[in-house]
Amino acid sequence: MNDISLKLDERTVVGKKAAGLRGEGLIPSVVYGGHAEPLSTQSATVETTKVAHAAGKHTPVHLIIDGKKKLAIIKSIDMDPVKHSIRHLAFHTIKQNETITTEVPIILTGIGESEAEKAGLVVLQAIEKISVKARPAHLPDSFEMSISSLATTDDKLTVADITLPEGVEFADMDQDVELVIANVYEPSALQAANDAAGGDAVDESEVVTENGGDTPQDTQAEETKPGGKLQNEPKQSNVDANKK
Fold this sequence. Notes:
By secondary structure, this protein is mainly beta. The protein has helices at residues 45-55, 115-118, 187-196, 220-223, and strands at residues 4-10, 26-32, 39-44, 61-65, 68-79, 86-94, 100-109, 122-125, 129-134, 143-146, 156-158, 169-170, 180-185. The strands form three sheets. Strands 1-3-2-6-5-4 form a six-stranded mixed barrel. A four-stranded mixed β-sheet has the order 10-7-9-12, with no helix packed on it.
C-alpha cells in the first residue's frame, strides 16, 4: 500500500458559499467517522487532485488536520461534468487495526504482447474491480493480471487467477472464482454483436464515470449527509479491436 498523505484545513465557509473556494484554488471536503460530528475541511486543489487520483476509493489516505493524523478512505468524489475537475470530496476515517471492505481495481498487463492479439484477436476486460477485505496496511493498490498467456478464443482469465496477498481475502465468502475477468474474441464476432445491438459499442473509457450532479450545498446539514450513490473510479480502458 502506498503511503499517501493530504493536509486539510478546517473551513467555516459552508453551503452555497463553499463553491467560491474553488475559485481560490481550494477544494471543499467533509470528514466523517468516529463519534465526532462531520468536520468541514478544505485543501489545495493541485495536491488534492493528485491524492484523489492516486488513492481512488480503495487506498487509505493519511489526513493531517491541525497537526493531528487520521487514516481515511475517500468515500465519494463529486466531479464537474464539463471541466472534469473535483468539486467536493467526502472522507471516512478508519483504524489501522480495523478490517475494512473496499473495491480494488483489476489492471490487465501485457496488452499488445499476447499471442491472441498478435493473431488479430481482441482481449476485452469484463470485470474491472473486485471487493476484498483486509486491514489498511494489507490492502493492495490493485491486482495486476497479465494477458500474455492468452492465445485463442478458448482462453480467459477468471477470479481464480487473482493472487491474494497475505492478509487479504474476498469480501464475499462465496465468491465465484470462475467469474470471467477477461475474454478473447474474434473481431468479426464483436462486430456482429454490435450490429445485433443496433449500433456500434460505446467505448466505456470515454464515459465520465464520476457523478456529474451537484453536491447539495444549500445548507451545512445537507452537505454533510453521508448517503447517496457512490461514484465509480475511472476505469481501465478496454482493448479496442483494430479496424482493418
